[in-house]
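Exercise 7b. C-alpha cells:
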C-alpha cells in the first residue's frame, strides 16, 4: 500500500513537471522561433498601439445619440449601438465579438427564432446599405451579412459583402469608390493552396488601411476617426 502510494505520488509529480511545465514551455519556445507573431496571437498594431488581432473579429459600431447628443440606452440601460457608416462592418456576432466567450447561436436551421434573427439582420443590412445601393434587394445580400459565424469572432467577410459595403464607405469618406474597392482587393485572402475555402476580406486590416488614406480636402473633420482605438473596439 505504502509503495503504491509513493509510486503514484512520484508519477503525479513527474508527469506534472513534464507535461504541465516542460512540454508547454518547449512548444511555446519552438512556436515563437518558427512562427513569430502568430504564436503571440497575430496581434495588429496601429500608431504604436495594439488594436486587435488578425484572428478575432471586432465591432465597428458606435453608440447612438439623440437630437441633443445624449447617448441612447435600451431597456436594460445599455448603450444602443449603430453601424459607423465610415467603416466596413463585421458579420453578426452573438457574443459581441468577445474573444473570451466564443460561441455560436445554437439555433436550429428550421427554427422560428432562426428565421426571425435572419429577418432582423437582413432588415438592418438593407437599411444601412440601400441609401448607397438603391437597387439592392434581399437576394443580393450575401449570407455572411445576416448570419453569425460558428465562433462569433470571425475576422473576415465575403468579397461580395465587402463590395456592397464599399459604396457606403466611399460615400461616407468622400473617397473614390474605385480606391475603396482597390483596398478591398488588397486585403482579400485567396483560397488556401488555391482550392480550400473561399476568398475573404480582413475587416480590421481594411478599416485600418482606410484610416491611413489621406482625407479629401473637401471633407469636414470627423470625430469618429478614433473608432479603431483599442478601448472603442472592445
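Sequence design result:
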Amino acid at each position: 500500500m505504502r509503495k503504491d502510494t509513493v509510486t503514484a505520488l512520484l508519477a503525479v509529480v513527474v508527469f506534472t513537471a513534464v507535461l504541465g511545465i516542460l512540454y508547454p514551455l518547449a512548444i511555446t519556445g519552438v512556436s515563437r522561433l518558427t512562427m513569430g507573431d502568430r504564436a503571440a496571437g497575430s496581434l495588429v498594431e496601429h500608431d504604436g498601439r495594439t488594436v486587435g488581432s488578425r484572428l478575432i473579429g471586432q465591432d465597428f459600431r458606435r453608440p447612438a445619440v439623440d437630437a441633443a447628443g445624449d447617448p441612447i440606452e435600451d431597456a436594460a440601460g445599455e448603450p444602443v449601438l449603430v453601424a459607423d457608416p465610415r467603416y466596413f462592418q463585421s458579420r453578426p456576432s452573438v457574443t459581441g465579438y468577445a474573444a473570451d466567450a466564443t460561441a455560436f447561436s445554437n439555433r436550429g436551421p428550421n427554427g422560428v427564432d432562426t428565421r426571425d434573427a435572419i429577418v432582423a439582420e437582413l432588415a438592418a443590412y438593407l437599411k444601412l446599405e440601400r441609401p448607397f445601393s438603391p437597387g439592392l434587394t434581399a437576394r443580393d445580400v450575401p449570407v455572411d451579412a445576416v448570419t453569425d459565424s460558428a465562433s462569433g469572432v470571425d475576422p473576415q467577410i465575403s468579397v461580395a459583402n465587402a463590395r456592397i459595403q464599399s459604396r457606403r464607405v466611399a460615400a461616407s469618406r468622400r473617397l473614390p469608390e474605385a480606391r475603396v474597392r482597390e483596398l478591398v482587393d488588397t486585403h482579400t485572402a485567396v483560397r488556401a493552396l488555391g482550392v480550400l475555402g473561399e476568398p475573404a476580406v480582413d475587416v480590421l486590416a481594411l478599416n485600418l488601411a482606410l484610416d491611413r488614406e489621406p482625407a479629401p480636402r473637401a471633407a469636414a473633420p470627423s470625430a469618429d476617426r478614433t473608432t479603431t482605438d483599442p478601448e472603442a473596439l472592445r
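Instructor comment: Residues 21 and 168 are 51 Å apart (CA to CA). Residues 223-234 have pLDDT under 50 and may be disordered.
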